[in-house]
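Supplementary Methods. Inverse-folding protocol.

Structures were first reduced to a discrete structure-token string of length 347. This string, shown here, constituted the complete conditioning input.
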């Protein structure tokens, strides 16, 4: 009878010690969820409604916001239900669905940031070939790869976890995670561990290395340029991505590192904060970073909010425009030659 009970549900233990404070956390969680949905929906609407923003980087930004909505939906509805309820159990099927959603969200975030880094690399290091490389067809293939590969690899990982016979049902987290389930296994989990390393290598560590490579190349190009304006524009167009990348990398490092600790080795509050950081901070921070950094998105968001026509100066290209990041570095091929910038870069 016990084994049958264990196989029917999982039990979240971290909700036990919260008492009446869980209603405070419920209110805070609801506000965070509403904020994430509001800001990211605004970003997506601003980009969809303005055809002038139907360009590679803006399309990838909208995908980043769509992923934020997807990941938040995988976490918050269930979390808010548990905070509001006295029963903190979840069925096996619901738990594995949540694992799939949260882990694909995490993988999508890194693969999207990698695609954005590639776009900036081409724009700054190969500006003359940018429009011939970053075609609509190529962008569609990139986005398809960004979504399909993590979906397949995470799906296989979840199936490997489903097959494990379990000797317990207590999860020391606020949501279902693959490592929490694997820990409960009664048999060897070598296959799961090796496959988990493969997934982490291909969806986290390899993208991380590629992003670092692109920024090293961008720094080299900027160092070879004698134009201060060129360097400023390159920095401005890369800065939002750097902020998002650094923020998410730190959050994922904390999650991966501290999730390996056994229950009781760390204070519960530390476990809770670190396990939620990568699911809350990036979806909340990214729309603010991109919305405030790019005038085109700012203007369109204001237009959507007020339902009024854009101001006359909205059509004037801004120096911080992403198109302005497609900089001409042909003059860098010969030392001492006069620097040439594209008309877009001078706008």
């Amino acid at each position: 009878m016990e084994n049958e009970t264990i196989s029917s549900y999982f039990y979240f233990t971290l909700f036990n010690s919260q008492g009446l404070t869980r209603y405070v956390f419920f209110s805070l969680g609801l506000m965070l969820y509403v904020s994430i949905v509001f800001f990211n929906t605004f970003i997506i609407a601003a980009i969809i409604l303005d055809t002038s923003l139907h360009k590679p980087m803006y399309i990838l930004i909208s995908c980043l916001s769509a992923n934020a909505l997807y990941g938040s939906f995988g976490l918050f509805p269930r979390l808010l239900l548990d905070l509001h309820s006295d029963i903190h159990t979840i069925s096996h099927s619901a738990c594995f669905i949540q694992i799939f959603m949260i882990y694909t969200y995490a993988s999508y975030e890194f693969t999207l940031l990698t695609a954005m880094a590639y776009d900036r690399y081409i724009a700054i290091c190969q500006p003359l070939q940018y429009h011939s490389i970053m075609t609509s067809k190529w962008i569609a293939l990139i986005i398809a790869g960004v979504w399909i590969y993590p979906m397949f690899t995470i799906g296989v990982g979840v199936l490997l976890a489903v097959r494990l016979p379990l000797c317990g049902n207590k999860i020391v987290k606020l949501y279902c995670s693959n490592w929490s389930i694997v820990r409960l296994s009664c048999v060897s989990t070598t296959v799961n561990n090796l496959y988990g390393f493969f997934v982490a290598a291909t969806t986290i560590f390899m993208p991380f290395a590629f992003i670092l490579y692109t920024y090293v190349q961008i720094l080299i190009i900027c160092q070879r340029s004698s134009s201060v304006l060129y360097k400023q524009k390159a920095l401005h167009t890369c800065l939002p991505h750097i902020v998002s990348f650094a923020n998410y990398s730190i959050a994922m490092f904390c999650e991966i590192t501290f999730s390996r600790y056994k229950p009781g080795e760390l204070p519960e509050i530390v476990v809770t904060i670190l396990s939620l950081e990568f699911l809350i901070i990036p979806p909340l921070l990214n729309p603010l970073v991109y919305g405030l950094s790019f005038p085109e998105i700012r203007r369109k968001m204001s237009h959507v909010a007020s339902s009024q026509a854009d101001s006359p100066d909205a059509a004037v290209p801004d120096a911080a425009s992403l198109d302005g990041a497609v900089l001409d570095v042909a003059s860098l091929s010969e030392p001492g030659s006069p620097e040439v910038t594209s008309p877009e870069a001078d706008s």
